[in-house]
Design a protein that fits this description.
Blueprint lengths: L18 E2 L1 E6 L5 E6 L2 E5 L4 E6 L4 H9 L1 E6 L5 H9 L8 H5 L3 E2 L8 E2 L4 E13 L2 E13 L17 E4 L2 E3 L9
Antiparallel strand pairs: 1-11, 2-3, 2-6, 4-5, 5-10, 6-9, 7-8, 9-10, 11-12
């Protein structure tokens, strides 16, 4: 029998990865858009449809989400790993428009002011309902107001042979899903 190896508690969250590298986009009252990458997202409720995202108050996107109370979650495919890594490592405070600089195409959303990107596999439009302080992050609980996916990538679940979701392992390491669907 294999033995376990101790992992520092401060790194234990990596044991829950890979997780989707989700592009969180928000907007301020003047119309300035910013986005960041978050792997710390989770569904919370079917009814009402709630999702949670954990964002550090050090992030510029945190300020925009706090101000606007809205954001979009953009689920990206592996083809955009360079753009996603760029957006996850460069601050919007230091750039005029890092989303456009990334080369992604910004589009108007249906129910929130925050835009989404056309390259996304799927988009969730969200409005914040509650904030919870969570150590060095704030956990935003948001209602999903609108959700849509690219044609052909989603049925009851993602079609793994078509939806190559970009998954974050930690640091500069990413992976994606296989074509295999496993059932009991």
């Amino acid at each position: 029998m294999e033995r376990f190896t101790s992992i520092p508690a401060s790194s234990a969250y990596h044991l829950l990865h890979p997780k989707p590298a989700v592009l969180v986009i928000s907007i301020d009252s003047s119309g300035r858009v910013n986005g960041m990458i978050a792997a710390w997202t989770t569904p919370l409720s079917h009814s009402p449809p709630l999702i949670g995202v954990s964002i550090s108050p050090k992030r510029y996107t945190y300020e925009l989400v706090k101000e606007s109370g809205e954001f979009t979650l953009n689920i990206m495919s592996k083809e955009y790993v360079k753009q996603i890594h760029f957006l996850g490592t460069v601050s919007g405070r230091d750039r005029k428009d890092k989303l456009r600089e990334s080369g992604l195409t910004i589009s108007k959303s249906k129910k929130v002011k925050a835009p989404h990107v056309e390259e996304a596999l799927a988009v969730l439009e969200c409005r914040v309902e509650k904030e919870v302080e969570a150590g060095d992050h704030v956990f935003f609980i948001a209602r999903i107001l609108e959700a849509y996916a690219k044609s052909g990538v989603f049925g009851e679940v993602y079609k793994p042979e078509k939806a190559k979701i970009l998954l974050h392992l930690g640091g500069a390491y990413y992976t994606t899903i296989s074509d295999e669907i496993i059932t009991p």
